[in-house]
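Table S4 entry, ABC transporter ATP-binding protein.
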Amino acid sequence: MSNIKEHIVLKVKELSIGYKTKKVETVVASNLNFDLQQGQLIGLVGANGIGKSTLLRTLTKVQNPLNGNITINGKEIQKLSTIDLAKQLSLVLTEPLVAKNLSVYELVALGRQPYTNWIGNLSPKDQSIINVALEQTNILDLKDKKCYELSDGQLQKVMIARALAQDTDLIILDEPTTHLDMYHKAYVLKLLKQLTKTTNKTILFSSHEIDLAIQLCDTMIVMSKDNVQCNTPKQLISNGTFEKLFPQDLITFNDKTGSFRVSK
Ligand SMILES: Nc1ncnc2c1ncn2[C@@H]1O[C@H](COP(=O)(O)OP(=O)(O)OP(=O)(O)O)[C@@H](O)[C@H]1O
């Protein structure tokens, strides 16, 4: 029996997500229930338009839930101020960076904002945390470069370093592998996996790289029209979850190799 006590970082209970105007409520997914454990890598997958970004936006309080409850380390996110939430979770988006004129070091330093004074002065502790984040993402050699000089793969590592510098238990990334080649997709996801082990942080990312996620994730959240399942990749494979993800006339899932193939 394991002596390691599991700690739930994120708890989602009876959650409904979607969009609400004065007249209409559009439910994207409902009845979501899952717990994310400390130190795990969790991949969120599902077809285009199924609701992955909507779910991540709701978990990060960018939009309100239609119903239900989200807690981080036992605290309801709806009750947390912006600054307190920024000490619990950091968010990495793939949208083009507005601050490309900053150096890599300056951009990673932005992760310390929830902790610095209003002028943004960095204490020796802040500087040490920034250096560790640069080391952990293997970008120390890039620290004086301007962000506009970087490739997409390098920039993704910088954004991950910024999230690490924010020093939160939970890091959430929306499609961190977009725009990356096969090597860099694998590199970034493997880096995230290593970081969960070396830092004990919980990292949740959405992706269309289902094959890679199956290989690397401790847990996966699979969104489909019928339901949302959260389990280990192994259990999801034996439940036949991936087979039902796409129309089988075009794509089939091989449960022996854990990968998809185009039907001939
Ligand atoms: N601002 C919005 N207002 C109303 N409906 C929206 C809005 N944004 C997205 N939707 C709808 O919500 C549903 C889920 O979209 P979402 O972007 O969350 O899916 P996704 O799984 O992230 O897709 P993709 O993999 O293509 O990025 C879609 O039907 C979409 O049209």
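The chain is about 30% helix and 25% strand.
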